[in-house]
Amino acid sequence: MIFDAGFFYLPKTGYTMAMILLIDSSQSNSLRLSLTSKKDSVFDINIKAHHTQSEKLLPLLEEQLTKFHLKLSDITGIQVENRGEGFTNLRIGVTTANALAFALGISVTPIKGKALKKKGIMVVQPEYSRAPHITVKKPQVSN
Question: What global pTM score does this model have?
Answer without folding.
Answer: 0.79
